[in-house]
């Protein structure tokens, strides 16, 4: 990851543990997506119970790894909204 934005110069890392808050975004979006996916397949009866469990479990394990960088971007945006960088 770059140390700062090439466009505006905003530092991406403010200190150790800065991105710990991005876990909340990742967990929340993953949980919401799993719930929607589960009930969509449950009520459409497109899959058997075993298939539904396998698909939901696979999604719950793979999606957070893919969404990791986007969760960090959301955390940076949230931080910038509530604690703007001075001088930009």
Taking pLDDT < 50 over at least 5 consecutive residues as the criterion, the unreliable ranges are: none
DSSP strand content: under 5%
Rg on CA atoms, Å? 18 Å
What is the number of helical segments per DSSP (H or I, 4+ residues)?
2
Kindly name the structural category: mainly alpha
Oligomer: single chain
Shape: elongated
How would you summarize what this structure contains?
With 88 residues, the protein is mainly alpha-helical. The protein has helices at residues 22-44, 49-82.
Please explain how this structure is put together.
Helices cover 65% and strands 0% of the residues. With 88 residues, it is mostly helical. 5% of the residues are buried. The mean pLDDT is 88.
Keywords:
elongated; mainly alpha; 88 residues
Layout of SSEs?
Elements: H1 22-44, H2 49-82
Helix pairs in contact: 1-2
């Amino acid at each position: 990851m770059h140390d700062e934005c090439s466009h505006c110069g905003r530092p991406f890392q403010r200190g150790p543990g800065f991105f710990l808050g991005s876990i909340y975004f990742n967990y929340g979006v993953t949980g919401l997506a799993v719930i929607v996916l589960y009930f969509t397949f449950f009520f459409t009866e497109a899959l058997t119970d075993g298939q539904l469990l396998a698909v939901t479990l696979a999604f719950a394990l793979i999606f957070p790894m893919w969404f990791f960088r986007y969760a960090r971007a959301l955390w940076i945006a949230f931080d910038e909204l509530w604690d703007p960088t001075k001088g930009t």
